[in-house]
Design a protein that fits this description.
Largest sheet: 3 strands, parallel
Shape: globular
Helix content: 25-40%
Oligomer: single chain
Strand order of the largest sheet: 1-2-3
Number of strands: 5
Radius of gyration: 15 Å
């Protein structure tokens, strides 16, 4: 992600950490990765349970053909004071503005670069709004 030309606009304000396979990390390393995150963009799966290690007010974007993890459970999210967004299968009328995935089978999916950039823009906007609210609260 960090070497993709289209991501250059984010480099000054956000740090990306790409983890290819959570199974390669110890539980402590997984907990640390989530604890350092303001936002997590991740394929649907069991490793989303690591959300319990995130700081309050973290943002989660769960990407996949179906959203089936605890992240979509409002009671779970209230425990960590997080915000969740599911990015799932495109609707029948595939709009270029729709943030969604194209599915091939039950769990294989792809996402256009434009949809991924729109998702990141949305996450950045929400993060900036949260930071501004916190700053305004201190005044």
């Amino acid at each position: 992600v960090s070497t993709t030309k289209s991501m250059k606009k984010y480099k000054a304000s956000i740090e990306f950490n790409l983890i290819d396979n959570f199974d390669d990390l110890t539980i402590a390393e997984q907990a640390n990765a989530f604890n350092l995150a303001d936002a997590v963009v991740m394929a649907t799966g069991d490793h989303m349970a690591n959300a319990i290690f995130t700081p309050d007010d973290s943002y989660f974007a769960e990407v996949g053909c179906h959203s089936e993890s605890l992240i979509g459970n409002k009671k779970f999210m209230s425990l960590i004071l997080g915000t969740q967004r599911s990015v799932t299968k495109c609707t029948g009328g595939d709009s270029e503005d729709e943030i969604c995935v194209s599915c091939n089978g039950k769990s294989n999916f792809s996402m256009t670069g434009a949809a991924f950039r729109a998702l990141l823009d949305d996450i950045m906007k929400q993060h900036e709004d949260k930071v501004q609210f916190q700053r305004d609260s201190l005044r």
